[in-house]
Amino acid sequence: MTLTIDPKGYRKLLVEAAPKVIETEEEYRKALAFVEKFTFDQAQTPEEVAIYKLFVTLIEAYEAENYPVKAVSPSDVLRHILQVSDVRSADLVGVLGSERVITEILNGDRDISLAQASILADRFKVSPELFLR
Questions:
Q1: What are residue 12's phi and psi, to 5 degrees?
Q2: Measuring CA to CA, which residue among 88, 84, 74, 83 is closest to residue 121?
Q3: Coil, strand or helix at 40
């Protein structure tokens, strides 16, 4: 759906917001504060939506450069889920395979198959993609 934007209203918001490439932590915090104002506002004008999206894009670019997300392996994900859900690896024996298979998966020596990923996703109510490379 394309929103019709009022050029005058949009220019006014652009002047007030003064969006620019974020280069410092202070600019980053200000951009976050600006976006936060609009995040839960259910009555945004099309102009506000456009400015909001612009700021989100600027924030995402800054975060990608300054706060890169480390890739996590499927075995790391499974270990974490087991830890926070208070499930033991032994509880997965018979569900995913033998104790040896579970150990190899948790050590990162064996990939989780598509069938195993589906089983884990159903059990822990998450996306199977978390368990696949």
A1: -60, -45
A2: 74
A3: coil
Which amino acid is residue 96, in one-letter code?
A: L
**Alpha helices per DSSP H over the chain:** 7-17, 25-39, 46-66, 74-85, 99-106, 114-124
CA 83 to CA 125: how far, in whole Å? 15
Q: Can you give the pLDDT at residue 1?
A: 55
| 80 has a pLDDT exceeding 90 | yes
Predicted TM-score (pTM) above 0.70: no
CA distances, 89 to each of 92, 93, 103 (Å): 5, 7, 8
Which residue(s) pair with 97 in the sheet? 93
pLDDT(52) > 80: yes
pLDDT at 2: 63
Helix, strand, or coil here: 6?
coil
